[in-house]
Design goal:
Elements (H helix, E strand, L loop, with lengths): L2 H11 L6 E2 H8 L5 H9 L12 E2 L13 H11 L12 H4 L11
Parallel strand pairs: 1-2
Helix pairs in contact: 1-2, 1-3, 2-3
């Protein structure tokens, strides 16, 4: 499995209404130093709508200014449709919306 395939596998697991950070996806994909690779992979997402790249944000909850599928306004719109909560500064409320990295029903 390639690095990008591993990244896509993790991103597919992020549930609707939740987000993950680039670093978190990198860690779960096997290497915490792959955060930049996560960005590259998501920018070349081969299955938009199936691989929910809009659910990946930076470590402070910021959106991607160059979101590959319509800009950060499109990313925010997709997240808001899923119920993701934003602070007044435009960042995702990570305390309430950060995915715990577990699949539904899985326990730590």
């Amino acid at each position: 499995m390639t690095v990008f395939e591993r990244i896509y596998e993790i991103v597919r697991r992020i549930p609707s209404g939740k987000v993950a950070t680039y670093g978190m996806v990198a860690q779960l994909a096997g290497n915490p130093r792959w955060a930049r690779a996560v960005g590259y992979a998501l920018h070349s997402n081969p299955e938009p709508g199936i691989i929910p790249c809009h659910r990946v944000v930076n470590r402070s909850g910021g959106l991607a200014p160059a979101f590959a599928f319509g800009g950060e306004h499109a990313q925010r719109g997709l997240l808001e449709q899923e119920g993701v909560i934003f602070h007044e500064d435009g960042k995702v409320d990570l305390e309430r919306c950060l995915w715990n990295g577990l699949d539904e029903g899985e326990t730590p």
